[in-house]
Amino acid sequence: MKLRIGGELLRAEAVPGGMRVFRDGRELEFACTDLGNGLVRVVGASGTFTVWVNGARAGARGEALSVTRELARGAGASTGTLSPPMPATVGRVLVVEGERVATGQALVVLVAMKTEITLRAPYEGRVVGLRATIGQNVRPGDRLVQVERDETR
Amino acid sequence: MKLLVANRGEIAVRVLRAARELGAPTVAVYSDADRDALHVRLADEAVHLGPTPPAESYLNAGRLLAAAAATGATHLHPGYGFLSENADFARAVLAAGLCWVGPSPAAIATMGDKAAARRAMAAVGVPVVPGTESPDVATLTAMGFPLVVKAVAGGGGRGMRVVREASGLEEALAGAAREALAAFGDGRLYAESLIEPARHIEVQVLGDQSGQVIALGARECSVQRRSQKLLEESPAPGLDTAALAAMEAAAVRGARSVGYVGAGTVEFLLAPTGAFYFLEMNTRIQVEHGVTELVTGIDLVAAQLRIAEGARVPEPPIARGHAIEARICAEDVAGGFLPSPGQLLRFRLPAGPGVRVDSGFEEGDPVPDAYDSLLCKVLVHAEDRNAAIARLSRALSELDIAGVPTTAPLLARVLASGEFAAGTIHTRWLEPFAAGLQPNPDAVEAIAAGWAFANAGGAGTPSCAAMATATPWQSLGSWR
Question: Which domains are delineated in chain A?
Fold first, then answer.
């Protein structure tokens, strides 16, 4: 299978007892053991890693990356739907339903671990489907607000 | 003494341990999210405060005082953060007949008002950055750029704006006031000339009820993101004896002028010219107090408790060796230090010679989004700075945390950098350094293997998730 990790494209294929990874013309073999609970022990020439997998997020040794399976071309185009990057609380809602917004305009401010995270308009358009209220607990995957692109664009 | 610890996480654990060593019975408090937390398990008694949001639990003065009354606690230790620097809370604790383990409410109030603190320090000859308490456009334009606008009630970088030219001034003043009002309920601002590049160096002080104050050396804390520290060490590299003595004397003079009792920290900015300026005073135990403990041999939390009981400060000891602390926070560094709540699927901590770990978490624990991102602190002590760097690098390589990203890989790279070795890092160095880093290629490859294994099933066997999305035809296909 082809994987997109960060901005990079890698290929992985199953081998007995693990995975072979192709990267930059190199082949690397890893022995993999399912530890349960979303954990995989990965042993390769570069060492032993406890890899955790949580949907499209995965990590090892404190690093976390987004991993997606590379599907047919054209999939994954932005829909303008904004979702929290982590579990958080809605701190402020800066727009109203139907409001016109500019690219990069702040729409909703989330608070997680005492830090503010601002969800911004990915492009110019109109706010539709605003479903964020102050104090609400939100999770990744929740659709908080959507920006509808102008028809003419 | 029966001690209630009005905090959570690693600092609650730290204080509970000190109290137990002194033979004092202990009371922990907890919110819904912390029901099974380590600090609850380590206390003799524990009281449920309320729901997870801090306002209904650790920031709720009424519930904390009720917990103290219900358990017959005689002393209250506030830890750091939450209500630790809230003069009204300190007054309420004293009014309830409890002993407040900290400085007087008046000292907290003076140092908490950053403009009043500047005045108090300048009055006793502690150098302050040139600045003004009336930051209007005309005054600031006359003062010149670059400058920094700060919240009078501030701290932690909130309500703070760096202004480099006149054109951005009005907007910066409005923005800082708005942020300060939202964060502290007080929109007052002051402004200072910007000292850059500056190093953050702070002096640990300890005062007692007889009016004696001692200094316990300096900590270098310039490795910061969002004006918050990630690596701290003592002694401060490259700070000569005369400069250290001048800083310690200024810190003692400042603390004495407000009648400081207990453990506190006087923070300074060190300019490239060698001049140093008062930044602020933290009227509580600090996250990074452990590095001072390692080099001085003084247990600062035990000292706080003894001083609250009327003990005198100890003789200042001779510092020995070098100590460094790494803050391991649940943050996604590549995403711009994005806070990353989750669950600690694996949480294996380093050990061995010269390694101390202060942690508030155990394997399997949730990491709530309602609280700070600090998971644990890894501290090392060694005979000199190079040995301490090597020891901390070794300790971080043993750390095995899965389930949330952490600051550990970044800090390992900082320790390996030429700039850290040279001891010349300034407070704005880390963020561009972190932004320029690529993920560790070994980790990327291991993640690819692990993710593919979990999502494709080991050795060609489809996983449940893959089966669920496959059509019957595809599933049957492999039989033919």
Answer: 2-69 (2.40.128), 81-149 (2.40.50.100)
